[in-house]
Amino acid sequence: MRLIRIAAVVLLALLPPALLWSQTAGPDKKDSQASEQQAQESDGAAASPSSSDVPGEDLQAVERAPLPLTAPAEIRNQHSDHKQTERMFWVVPNFAAVNPDTQLPPLSARGKFVLAMHDSMDYSGFTWTAVLAGQAMATRSVPELGTGVKGYARYYWRTFADGVSGTFFTEAIVPAITREDPRYYTMGHGGFFRRFGYALSRTVITKTDSGGSSFNWSEVVGNALEAGLSNAYYPPQERGGKQTARDWGTQMESAVLNNIAKEFWPDIRHLILRHD
User: Fold this and answer.
1) What pLDDT, in 10s, does the model give residues 60-114?
2) Is residue 53 pLDDT above 90, yes or no?
3) Is-contact 48 39, C-beta < 8 A?
4) At what angle do helices 2-24 and 241-273 cross, to 10 degrees?
5) How far apart are CA 247 and CA 250, in angstroms?
6) Which residue in 33, 48, 112, 258 has a CA-CA distance of 20 to 30 Å to 105?
């Protein structure tokens, strides 16, 4: 636990900028779950899920209820306060993070698109896009876009397009085709290095809608599609195979950082609030 607390402090200092970047320039996968959702009986049939992942009445397609926990009781008690929340650091969307020791019913294709919509259109994404666009123009990362108000507008809409397309590719379009679950299932217990390794592995391994495990086509291929699509709206000097590969690598790096943040956010929050 001491090692995890030390790591939490380091993550607290280093991760917020990377997280916000992943909301715009790099997709990431985000919706909090309440760990104590209840099943309702209807007409003598089996119980059906009744709790929504994300705010809004239009999110009924994202409804789910946890199946019985399989972790030992001592683990569940030890981590009962370490729950995911809708936002990390009270700003960054965390809609797709699932509490430890929780198994959820699959998301429908519509539910995946609803999740991607909320991740893409969250207020923090617009704000951070403005920051990133200003930074990119100040450093002249794409000098062909120019400067001034017009130059800033060019940087802004391209940065926003990167984030939205990446989120929809990785959370909705590819998962709907491959029948993968775009949510992050938190490990939540075990040593720091075990959990760190688990977070890294989720970039290339994911759950399927049937509850099994699969190569993470959604993340790997989805980010490649986003990087390829950017060739359509960036200047010719910023296109081509090498630039696309670099963009793909940047998106995958953002996905790794996002997974690490999701895994340890409950610990960081626990440390900040000092819930002992």
Assistant:
1) 344 443 333 333 444 334 444 578 999 998 899 999 999 999 989 999 999 999 9
2) no
3) yes
4) 130
5) 5
6) 258
Helix (H) or strand (E) holding 207: strand 205-207
The two counts, helices (H) then strands (E), for the chain are: 9, 6
pTM as predicted:
0.72
DSSP string, 131-196: HHHHHHHHHTSSGGG-SHHHHHHHHHHHHHHHHHHHHHIIIIIHHHHHTB--SEE----S-HHHHH
Q: Angle at CA 236, nearest 5°, toward 235 and 240?
A: 120
Per-residue b or e along 136-152, where b marks 16 or more CB atoms closer than 10 Å to that residue's CB: bbeeeebeebeeeeebb
Token output for 109: 């294709």
Place of tokens 């104590």: 36
Q: How many residues does the chain have?
A: 276
Single out the residue of 156, 159, 15 nearest to residue 92, CA to CA.
15
- As a whole number of angstroms, the distance between CA 90 and CA 40 comes to 31
Collapsing DSSP to helix, strand or coil, 31 comes out as: strand
How far apart (Å, rounded) are the C-alpha atoms in residues 164 and 157? 10
CA 208 to chain centroid, in Å, comes to 16
**What are 227-269's pLDDT values in tens digits?**
999 999 999 999 999 999 999 999 999 999 999 999 999 999 9
What secondary structure letter does DSSP report for 61?
G
107 φ, ψ (degrees, to nearest 5)? -80, 140
Residue 17 CB-density burial (10 A; 0-12 exposed, 13-18 middle, 19+ buried): exposed
